[in-house]
Amino acid sequence: MIDRRIKFRHIQCFVEIAQSGSFKRAAETLFLTQPAISKTLKELEDILGCNLMERSRAGVSLTTDGARFLQYAQMALASLQQGLQDLGNDKDTQTETLAIGALPSVTAKLLPAVSKRLSQDPHPFTLRILDGPHKFLLDKLVTGEIDMLLGRMGDHRDMVGLNFSLLYREKISFIVRKGHPLLKDASLEGLKDWPIIYPDRNAAIRPSVDRFMVERGISDLYRRVETVSGAFGRRYVAESDAIWIISDGVAASEVDAGRLERLPFDTDTTLGPIGIVTREDWDLSHPARIFRRALRETVEDLGL
């Protein structure tokens, strides 16, 4: 009988490390951190009661036990893949589903291009996208209602049992309509004279924005609406003198098209990591592999 402690992720990680010859490359391929990869391999070795791999300056090498086990692990993965393909052939009218949660900047900037790339993939699946506040989506991830979360890394206290894989970094921008009076004499002190769209308390960018304001002595922005809604922000800013404080990617397409403008503030200190958050115990599905590849290629194409 197979030891029930052995999970698909154990076999998947072991085979990926062996084939790539590197913990780093295996982590990148599986969209995990190197510590997570190492932990998973250690769990497998503890269950099997033997060392499967050895590290050296030259890379990773298999032990005698590791080389023997690799043959069976590869056959197991190949058999499982064949089984999934056979089932898929019998159920042409059904497709697998990948559920993701995405913060507004990713939804606006990255996912349309990723979806366009996925539409050309020969192995279609249903992509279900849920957007909302960061804490809301984290809760959905923990309970298994979504498979992964795309956006800023949360507070370390919220990341227990989760993995984060970096995609790119993004800063906060101050967005206004074309011809806004503050564009002529842009100053942070001038913010208090205009309506503000400020990230709400559940937004991933809220701590960064609060810190940016405090460091510059700005504390009296009382005329504000708190939200990270892209639909609301675009409409309200375009039709008023409001200033929208938001992740740059949310309004990037409108700025690039010349419909909105960025105030020329130096916000480099607000750069934050954008990436993929998954549960540590989640087994990477076939749709997730396809999505991950499309995501990586899109990030490279966009030069993020």
TrEMBL record:
SUPFAM superfamilies: Periplasmic binding protein-like II, Winged helix' DNA-binding domain
Keywords: DNA-binding, Transcription, Transcription regulation
PROSITE patterns in the record: HTH_LYSR
Pfam families for this protein: HTH_1, LysR_substrate
Domain of life per record: Bacteria
Family of the protein in this entry: Belongs to the LysR transcriptional regulatory family.
Name by which UniProt lists this protein: Pca operon transcription factor PcaQ
Gene: pcaQ
